Amino acid sequence: MTKAFDQTQWTNAAFSKGYLESADHIIQERSELFRMFRSFYRKFIGTTTCASFCDLGCGDGILGKQLLEENASLHATLVDGSAKMLDAAKERLKQYPACQFIQASFTSLKSSFPEDARFDLIISGFAIHHLSLPEKAALFQTAHDLLKEGGWFLNMDTTSPDDPFFTDWYYENWQSWVDIRDRDFGLGGEFREISSQARSNPDNQLSPLGVQLELLRAAGFGRVDCHYKNGLFSIFGGQRGAAHHLSCSR
Ligand SMILES: C[S@@+](CC[C@H](N)C(=O)[O-])C[C@H]1O[C@@H](n2cnc3c(N)ncnc32)[C@H](O)[C@@H]1O
Question: What is the mean pLDDT of residues 102-118?
Fold first, then answer.
């Protein structure tokens, strides 16, 4: 389903605020996701001459901040369709004055940058699953085009399993993680419906991970792989200009 950004729940200030306040409780293993993300940055990117990154669907800038904590001299461009989210990102990142903030929908992303804009790294956290599959394909192509040769794209997001046989189990396990955290933090059952609410919300358009990896390859990325996966939650991406390496050792 293709939907303009201004028809999504993210234009509702109360919904956006609710997400920001609850994200640590509802994103499965969020701290582990951040640890993996930073590890990838240190191992493959930070050691080279990475000078710039762009965060697509930055929300309050929490993902970009992970990188700025690794390297405060990075030139950060944070993009979101929501002015409220960008305000929250400006507040979170106020100690990094070189950050640039752009209000844009993913569907008009390319025209929001100068023709020659190129980044060393493009990241995204829990935003791209709001797009339909054709929109994801178009965004992956735009991300590829906006990267320098050798630049990386890294997406932290919810994805569906390649075989729907596992879908129910993935949602059950997510809810079980939320319920354990609820008990440990004494949250009073506030999120006991979160997995079923998310599953029935048409704004969430999860696509199979394997299909998305293929879309990345089709967009021209090499070194395409999934680096973290726990049920619905994953980190995956690729590198512009890298050759395709498929190993099939038996
Ligand atoms: C779940 S939040 C994630 C925020 C942040 N990246 C994080 O990891 O916490 C999704 C964000 O994507 C933005 N977003 C969703 N669809 C978008 C679109 N089509 N164009 C631009 N931004 C979009 C929303 O406004 C929201 O800030």
Answer: 94
Ligand 1 pocket list (CB less than 6 A): 5, 8, 10, 19, 23, 57-59, 62-63, 80-82, 85, 105-106, 125-127, 130
Domain 5-240 class in CATH: alpha beta
Q: How far is the CA of 38 from the centre of ligand 1 (A)?
A: 20
Asked whether the whole model's pTM tops 0.85, one would answer yes
Chain segment 31-78, per-residue pLDDT in tens: 999 999 999 999 999 866 669 999 999 999 999 999 999 999 999 999
Residue located nearest, by CA, to atom 26 of ligand 1: 59
State the distance from the centre of ligand 1 to the C-alpha of 124, rounded, in angstroms.
8
What is the distance in A from the centroid of ligand 1 to the CA of 66? 17
Compute, in angstroms, the gap from residue 59 CA to the centroid of ligand 1: 5
Give the start-to-end residue ranges of the domains of the chain: 5-240
Condensed to tens digits (0 to 9), the pLDDT of residues 1-23 reads: 457 888 888 888 878 888 888 99
SS3 assignment for the chain: CCCCHHHCHHHCHHHHHHHHHHHHHHCCCHHHHHHHHHHHHHHHHCCCCCCEEEEECCCCCHHHHHHHHHCCCCEEEEEECCHHHHHHHHHHCCCCCCCEEEECCHHHCHHHCCCCCCEEEEEEECCHHHCCHHHHHHHHHHHHHCEEEEEEEEEEEECECCCHHHHHHHHHHHHHHHHHHHHHHCCCCCCCCHHHHHHHCCCCCCCEHHHHHHHHHHCCEEEEEEEEEECCEEEEEEEECCCCCCCCCC
Mean confidence (pLDDT) of the chain: 93
